[in-house]
């Protein structure tokens, strides 16, 4: 009966449980991971991604289309998503990035290249 229940739970999840387990075990604070814990983390991750996608779609510039700019805008304006600022930054031109690094000094020789880092 327990095997059937595990199979039903796994069928409800789209994310690969083995990958989630690998990510969780990469933390030195985690030693053992129960199947129930793994399922809950996977389900919570799916719901988070779904909520982020729906919210981004609501605020997107084009109907039924989400692009990187929309996602970056949500992440950088919503205080609850502050932990994603470094992962999903706004796109800026290379010369703007270099200008920020140099403390405002900008060179006109820089190419207009988008930097994601």
Automatic annotation (TrEMBL):
It comes from the Eukaryota. GO terms for biological process: chromatin remodeling; DNA-templated DNA replication. The keyword Coiled coil applies. It is found in: Nucleus. One of its GO terms (molecular function) is protein heterodimerization activity. GO terms for cellular component: CHRAC. Its main location: nucleus. InterPro entries: CBFA_NFYB_domain, Histone-fold, Transcr_DNA_Rep_Reg. The keyword DNA-binding applies. Residues 14-65 form the Transcription factor CBF/NF-Y/archaeal histone domain. Keywords: Acetylation, Coiled coil, DNA-binding, Nucleotidyltransferase, Nucleus, Phosphoprotein, Transferase. Heterodimer with POLE3; binds to DNA. Component of the CHRAC ISWI chromatin remodeling complex at least composed of SMARCA5/SNF2H, BAZ1A/ACF1, CHRAC1 and POLE3; the complex preferentially binds DNA through the CHRAC1-POLE3 heterodimer and possesses ATP-dependent nucleosome-remodeling activity. Within the complex, the heterodimer with POLE3 interacts with SMARCA5/SNF2H; the interaction is direct and enhances nucleosome sliding activity by the SMARCA5/SNF2H and BAZ1A/ACF1 interaction. Within the complex, the heterodimer with POLE3 interacts with BAZ1A/ACF1; the interactions are direct. PANTHER family: CHROMATIN ACCESSIBILITY COMPLEX PROTEIN 1, HISTONE-LIKE TRANSCRIPTION FACTOR CCAAT-RELATED. Forms a complex with DNA polymerase epsilon subunit POLE3 and binds naked DNA, which is then incorporated into chromatin, aided by the nucleosome remodeling activity of ISWI/SNF2H and ACF1. Does not enhance nucleosome sliding activity of the ACF-5 ISWI chromatin remodeling complex. This is Chromatin accessibility complex protein 1. It comes from Lingula anatina.
